[in-house]
Structure prediction request, 275 residues.
Amino acid sequence: MRSNTIQIRPAGASVGAEITGVDLSEPLTGVLRDTIKRTLADRGVVFFRDQTLTPEQHIGLARQFGDINVNRFFSNAEGYPEIALVVKEPHQTKNIGGGWHTDHSYDVEPALGSMLYAREVPPTGGDTLFSSMYAAYDALSDGLKHTLGGLRAVHSSRHVFGVARDDRFRNAEAAVQDAVHPAVITHPDSGRKALYVNPGFTLRFEGWTDDESRGLLEYLYRHAVKPEFGCRFVWQNGSLAFWDNRATWHYAVNDYQGERRLMHRITIEGCALAA
Ligand code: SIN
Prediction:
C-alpha cells in the first residue's frame, strides 16, 4: 500500500483518530512521524487499517517513536523479545486487559504507550474500548479539580502480575513495582491536564488509607468511562492501534469464548510524570 494522501478522521467525540493513506511498513518521513505524534498526543489513540507488517517492521516502526520496553510479564513472540504476545487461546476464558486500565502506571517512569497489531482476530467480538482522561478531567467541577490537584496516588503491579499460576502471565516474582504519581498529570507532549488514576493498578491516594481512598476512586472510575469520553475500535486482521497511556484508559472486551485472538504488542518507554 503506497499513498501520499494522509487523512485523519476522529473516531469518537473526545478520543481516537483513524489515520488513512499511510503504509507503516516503510520508514516514516519526519513530517509524517510528527503528524502521528501530534495526533496521538491530541486524540489519545490513533488507528490504522490494512497494514502488513513483519515483526521487524513492527519493531522498526515503534523505534521511530522511542525506546522499546521489553515486557516482564507477557510471553513474547518467538525470537522477538520486544514483541509481547497479547493472546487468548480457544480454551482460555480470561483475556489480557479485560478491565479498564492504563498500562505501566506502576512504573516510576510509565510507558508512553503501545502499538497493538492484530494478527488473528475472532470472527466477531474482541473489540477494544478507549476513554479519554483529558475529557474525564475537563468535565470535573472546579472544586474536585482543585482537590485532585493536591493529591498523588500509589500504583502497583503486585496484585495483577504477582499472582502465581495465572497462565496469562509469567515472572510473578518480578511484580515488585510500586510507584507514586500525581492524580492529575500535565501531559508531557500536549500540555493538557489528564486524570491519572485507574482501576487496574491504582491502590490509594498517598497518605490516605485504602478505605478512605475507595469512595473517591470509585466515583472517578464511574465518571471516567462515561460514553461521551470514549470510542470503540473494531479490529480486523492488519489493524494497528497506537495508544497513549498518559491520556487514555483502555478495555479489551472478552466476548469471544472458544475463539483465538492474537495480537502483537510493542510498548514504548515514557518518562516521569508531573502535575
Ligand atoms: C492490553 O490491555 O494491552 C490489550 C488490549 C487488547 O488486547 O485489546
